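At this stage, I needed to go through a protein sequence along with its fold in C-alpha coordinate form, as given directly below:
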Amino acid sequence: MPNTAVVNLALDTANTTVVAFTHGRGAWSIGIPSTGNGDGVGIYNSGHFLLTNDHSTVLANFWFGPGGAWKPLAGDFDANGVASIGIYNTGEWYLTNNNSAVASHFYFGPGSPWQPIIGDWDGNGTRTIGIYNNGEFYLSNDNVTVASHFWFGPGGTWQPLAGDWDGDGIMSVGIYNTGHFVLSNNNSAVAQNFWFGPGGTWQPLVGDWDGNITSTIGIYNNGQFYLSNDNVTIASHFWFGPGGTWLPIVGKWGLGAGSTPATGNYR
Protein backbone atom coordinates (compact mmCIF):
# COMPACT_ATOMS: atom_id res chain seq x y z
CA MET A 1 0.00 0.00 0.00
CA PRO A 2 1.39 3.48 -0.83
CA ASN A 3 2.76 5.73 1.90
CA THR A 4 -0.42 7.58 2.72
CA ALA A 5 -2.67 8.09 5.72
CA VAL A 6 -5.24 5.40 6.46
CA VAL A 7 -8.44 6.92 7.80
CA ASN A 8 -10.49 3.75 8.31
CA LEU A 9 -10.21 -0.03 8.23
CA ALA A 10 -12.93 -2.57 7.52
CA LEU A 11 -13.11 -6.35 7.49
CA ASP A 12 -15.09 -8.10 4.78
CA THR A 13 -17.93 -10.44 5.76
CA ALA A 14 -15.85 -13.55 5.04
CA ASN A 15 -13.03 -12.35 7.33
CA THR A 16 -10.54 -12.83 4.50
CA THR A 17 -9.76 -9.25 3.46
CA VAL A 18 -8.97 -5.96 5.22
CA VAL A 19 -10.04 -2.88 3.29
CA ALA A 20 -7.96 0.23 4.08
CA PHE A 21 -9.63 3.55 3.24
CA THR A 22 -7.16 6.36 2.58
CA HIS A 23 -7.78 10.08 2.58
CA GLY A 24 -8.55 11.14 -0.98
CA ARG A 25 -6.98 8.05 -2.56
CA GLY A 26 -9.71 5.46 -2.46
CA ALA A 27 -9.46 2.03 -0.83
CA TRP A 28 -6.86 -0.73 -0.82
CA SER A 29 -7.65 -4.39 -0.21
CA ILE A 30 -5.23 -6.52 1.79
CA GLY A 31 -5.81 -10.27 1.96
CA ILE A 32 -5.61 -12.05 5.31
CA PRO A 33 -3.76 -15.35 4.90
CA SER A 34 -5.41 -18.44 6.31
CA THR A 35 -3.59 -20.13 9.13
CA GLY A 36 -3.88 -23.34 7.15
CA ASN A 37 -4.57 -25.06 10.44
CA GLY A 38 -8.29 -25.58 10.59
CA ASP A 39 -10.29 -28.01 12.65
CA GLY A 40 -10.05 -31.74 12.20
CA VAL A 41 -12.69 -34.35 12.84
CA GLY A 42 -13.00 -37.48 14.90
CA ILE A 43 -15.36 -40.32 15.62
CA TYR A 44 -16.60 -41.91 18.83
CA ASN A 45 -18.22 -45.20 19.73
CA SER A 46 -18.88 -46.49 23.25
CA GLY A 47 -15.82 -44.87 24.87
CA HIS A 48 -13.52 -45.30 21.86
CA PHE A 49 -12.17 -42.17 20.13
CA LEU A 50 -10.36 -41.85 16.78
CA LEU A 51 -9.09 -38.36 15.87
CA THR A 52 -7.64 -36.91 12.65
CA ASN A 53 -6.40 -33.48 11.63
CA ASP A 54 -6.09 -34.26 7.92
CA HIS A 55 -9.35 -36.21 7.41
CA SER A 56 -7.37 -39.35 6.65
CA THR A 57 -4.53 -40.26 9.02
CA VAL A 58 -5.41 -41.38 12.55
CA LEU A 59 -3.66 -38.97 14.91
CA ALA A 60 -4.97 -40.48 18.14
CA ASN A 61 -6.71 -43.76 18.96
CA PHE A 62 -7.82 -44.13 22.59
CA TRP A 63 -10.58 -44.89 25.08
CA PHE A 64 -12.06 -42.49 27.59
CA GLY A 65 -15.03 -43.11 29.82
CA PRO A 66 -17.35 -46.09 30.24
CA GLY A 67 -19.18 -45.77 26.93
CA GLY A 68 -22.82 -46.78 26.97
CA ALA A 69 -25.13 -43.78 27.32
CA TRP A 70 -22.25 -41.29 27.68
CA LYS A 71 -22.04 -38.75 24.83
CA PRO A 72 -18.78 -37.36 23.40
CA LEU A 73 -17.75 -33.70 23.75
CA ALA A 74 -14.83 -31.72 22.35
CA GLY A 75 -13.36 -28.28 23.02
CA ASP A 76 -10.34 -26.24 24.04
CA PHE A 77 -11.05 -26.44 27.75
CA ASP A 78 -7.78 -24.83 28.94
CA ALA A 79 -7.22 -22.13 26.27
CA ASN A 80 -4.00 -23.70 24.95
CA GLY A 81 -5.16 -23.60 21.34
CA VAL A 82 -5.73 -27.36 21.18
CA ALA A 83 -9.00 -29.25 21.54
CA SER A 84 -9.45 -32.28 23.76
CA ILE A 85 -12.40 -34.49 24.55
CA GLY A 86 -14.97 -34.95 27.27
CA ILE A 87 -18.07 -36.98 27.99
CA TYR A 88 -21.59 -36.20 29.22
CA ASN A 89 -24.47 -38.22 30.65
CA THR A 90 -27.68 -36.98 32.30
CA GLY A 91 -26.23 -33.78 33.73
CA GLU A 92 -22.79 -35.18 34.61
CA TRP A 93 -19.68 -33.94 32.81
CA TYR A 94 -16.07 -35.14 32.56
CA LEU A 95 -13.57 -32.96 30.67
CA THR A 96 -9.93 -33.68 29.89
CA ASN A 97 -7.11 -31.44 28.67
CA ASN A 98 -4.97 -34.29 27.33
CA ASN A 99 -7.47 -37.00 26.30
CA SER A 100 -6.40 -39.09 29.27
CA ALA A 101 -6.53 -37.53 32.76
CA VAL A 102 -9.76 -36.05 34.10
CA ALA A 103 -9.27 -32.26 34.36
CA SER A 104 -12.80 -31.40 35.48
CA HIS A 105 -15.76 -33.37 36.81
CA PHE A 106 -19.02 -31.64 37.67
CA TYR A 107 -22.80 -31.60 37.34
CA PHE A 108 -24.72 -28.96 35.42
CA GLY A 109 -28.38 -29.07 34.45
CA PRO A 110 -31.22 -31.49 35.18
CA GLY A 111 -30.06 -34.21 32.80
CA SER A 112 -32.24 -35.92 30.21
CA PRO A 113 -33.77 -34.76 27.89
CA TRP A 114 -31.40 -31.76 28.02
CA GLN A 115 -28.57 -31.96 25.47
CA PRO A 116 -24.99 -30.73 25.99
CA ILE A 117 -23.33 -27.99 23.93
CA ILE A 118 -19.81 -26.53 24.08
CA GLY A 119 -18.67 -23.00 23.19
CA ASP A 120 -16.51 -20.01 24.04
CA TRP A 121 -19.44 -17.83 25.07
CA ASP A 122 -17.40 -14.86 26.38
CA GLY A 123 -14.46 -14.83 23.96
CA ASN A 124 -11.76 -15.63 26.54
CA GLY A 125 -10.32 -18.52 24.54
CA THR A 126 -11.70 -21.25 26.81
CA ARG A 127 -14.68 -23.35 25.88
CA THR A 128 -17.28 -24.01 28.50
CA ILE A 129 -20.57 -25.82 28.59
CA GLY A 130 -24.24 -25.26 28.02
CA ILE A 131 -27.44 -27.24 27.79
CA TYR A 132 -30.38 -27.21 25.41
CA ASN A 133 -33.92 -28.57 25.45
CA ASN A 134 -36.89 -27.80 23.21
CA GLY A 135 -35.65 -24.35 22.15
CA GLU A 136 -34.33 -23.34 25.59
CA PHE A 137 -30.62 -22.69 26.22
CA TYR A 138 -28.56 -22.27 29.39
CA LEU A 139 -24.92 -21.23 28.87
CA SER A 140 -22.14 -21.07 31.46
CA ASN A 141 -18.77 -19.28 31.32
CA ASP A 142 -17.31 -21.21 34.26
CA ASN A 143 -19.14 -24.58 34.17
CA VAL A 144 -20.86 -23.61 37.44
CA THR A 145 -23.04 -20.52 37.15
CA VAL A 146 -25.57 -19.61 34.46
CA ALA A 147 -24.24 -16.76 32.30
CA SER A 148 -27.08 -16.71 29.78
CA HIS A 149 -30.59 -18.16 29.58
CA PHE A 150 -32.74 -17.72 26.48
CA TRP A 151 -34.93 -19.40 23.88
CA PHE A 152 -34.01 -19.72 20.21
CA GLY A 153 -35.95 -21.63 17.60
CA PRO A 154 -39.14 -23.70 17.65
CA GLY A 155 -37.80 -26.62 19.68
CA GLY A 156 -39.18 -30.03 18.86
CA THR A 157 -36.83 -32.04 16.64
CA TRP A 158 -34.42 -29.13 16.09
CA GLN A 159 -30.88 -29.81 17.34
CA PRO A 160 -28.55 -27.24 18.95
CA LEU A 161 -25.36 -25.91 17.33
CA ALA A 162 -22.60 -23.57 18.52
CA GLY A 163 -20.03 -21.63 16.50
CA ASP A 164 -18.32 -18.32 15.89
CA TRP A 165 -20.38 -17.53 12.81
CA ASP A 166 -19.04 -13.99 12.30
CA GLY A 167 -15.41 -14.41 13.41
CA ASP A 168 -15.66 -11.99 16.34
CA GLY A 169 -14.09 -14.45 18.79
CA ILE A 170 -17.34 -15.15 20.63
CA MET A 171 -19.43 -18.22 19.92
CA SER A 172 -23.20 -18.14 19.66
CA VAL A 173 -25.88 -20.70 18.95
CA GLY A 174 -27.73 -22.13 16.03
CA ILE A 175 -30.22 -24.89 15.34
CA TYR A 176 -30.56 -27.65 12.76
CA ASN A 177 -33.39 -29.85 11.51
CA THR A 178 -33.33 -32.21 8.49
CA GLY A 179 -30.95 -30.13 6.38
CA HIS A 180 -32.17 -26.75 7.59
CA PHE A 181 -29.70 -24.51 9.47
CA VAL A 182 -30.59 -21.33 11.39
CA LEU A 183 -27.65 -19.43 12.94
CA SER A 184 -27.48 -16.43 15.28
CA ASN A 185 -24.61 -14.05 16.06
CA ASN A 186 -26.19 -12.79 19.30
CA ASN A 187 -28.39 -15.69 20.49
CA SER A 188 -31.46 -13.72 19.49
CA ALA A 189 -31.67 -12.51 15.89
CA VAL A 190 -31.32 -14.84 12.91
CA ALA A 191 -28.08 -14.11 11.05
CA GLN A 192 -28.16 -17.00 8.58
CA ASN A 193 -30.99 -19.24 7.43
CA PHE A 194 -30.18 -21.89 4.82
CA TRP A 195 -30.34 -25.54 3.77
CA PHE A 196 -27.35 -27.81 3.27
CA GLY A 197 -27.42 -31.53 2.61
CA PRO A 198 -30.23 -34.05 2.19
CA GLY A 199 -31.40 -34.10 5.80
CA GLY A 200 -32.73 -37.43 7.02
CA THR A 201 -30.05 -39.38 8.91
CA TRP A 202 -27.33 -36.83 8.14
CA GLN A 203 -26.03 -35.08 11.28
CA PRO A 204 -24.78 -31.47 11.50
CA LEU A 205 -21.16 -30.51 12.17
CA VAL A 206 -19.58 -27.14 13.01
CA GLY A 207 -15.91 -26.19 12.65
CA ASP A 208 -13.37 -23.70 11.39
CA TRP A 209 -12.31 -25.95 8.52
CA ASP A 210 -9.97 -23.49 6.79
CA GLY A 211 -8.47 -21.72 9.82
CA ASN A 212 -9.94 -18.29 8.98
CA ILE A 213 -11.43 -17.89 12.52
CA THR A 214 -15.03 -18.26 11.28
CA SER A 215 -17.15 -21.35 11.98
CA THR A 216 -19.00 -22.99 9.14
CA ILE A 217 -21.03 -26.15 8.84
CA GLY A 218 -20.74 -29.68 7.62
CA ILE A 219 -22.73 -32.89 7.64
CA TYR A 220 -21.99 -36.51 8.53
CA ASN A 221 -23.64 -39.86 7.84
CA ASN A 222 -22.32 -43.39 8.22
CA GLY A 223 -18.62 -42.49 7.96
CA GLN A 224 -19.08 -39.89 5.21
CA PHE A 225 -18.29 -36.19 5.74
CA TYR A 226 -19.12 -33.09 3.71
CA LEU A 227 -17.59 -29.80 4.93
CA SER A 228 -18.27 -26.26 3.71
CA ASN A 229 -16.22 -23.08 4.18
CA ASP A 230 -19.08 -20.76 3.21
CA ASN A 231 -22.25 -22.69 4.16
CA VAL A 232 -23.04 -23.02 0.46
CA THR A 233 -20.40 -24.93 -1.51
CA ILE A 234 -18.63 -28.19 -0.66
CA ALA A 235 -15.01 -27.61 0.38
CA SER A 236 -14.19 -31.18 1.39
CA HIS A 237 -15.78 -34.59 0.96
CA PHE A 238 -14.27 -37.70 2.54
CA TRP A 239 -14.85 -40.88 4.52
CA PHE A 240 -13.36 -41.48 7.96
CA GLY A 241 -14.13 -44.45 10.16
CA PRO A 242 -16.41 -47.46 9.82
CA GLY A 243 -19.71 -45.58 10.09
CA GLY A 244 -22.55 -47.43 11.78
CA THR A 245 -22.90 -46.43 15.43
CA TRP A 246 -19.80 -44.21 15.41
CA LEU A 247 -20.59 -40.53 16.10
CA PRO A 248 -18.69 -37.50 14.70
CA ILE A 249 -16.79 -34.91 16.77
CA VAL A 250 -14.80 -31.83 15.73
CA GLY A 251 -11.64 -30.19 17.06
CA LYS A 252 -8.13 -28.93 16.40
CA TRP A 253 -6.41 -31.93 17.95
CA GLY A 254 -3.10 -32.17 19.77
CA LEU A 255 -1.05 -35.27 20.42
CA GLY A 256 -2.75 -36.56 23.58
CA ALA A 257 -2.85 -40.31 23.15
CA GLY A 258 -5.34 -41.13 25.88
CA SER A 259 -5.64 -44.41 27.72
CA THR A 260 -8.04 -47.23 28.41
CA PRO A 261 -9.73 -46.48 31.77
CA ALA A 262 -10.35 -48.98 34.51
CA THR A 263 -13.95 -50.03 35.04
CA GLY A 264 -15.86 -47.63 37.26
CA ASN A 265 -13.50 -44.65 36.99
CA TYR A 266 -16.23 -42.38 35.65
CA ARG A 267 -19.22 -43.17 37.86
Observations:
- The first strand starts at residue 6 and ends at 11.
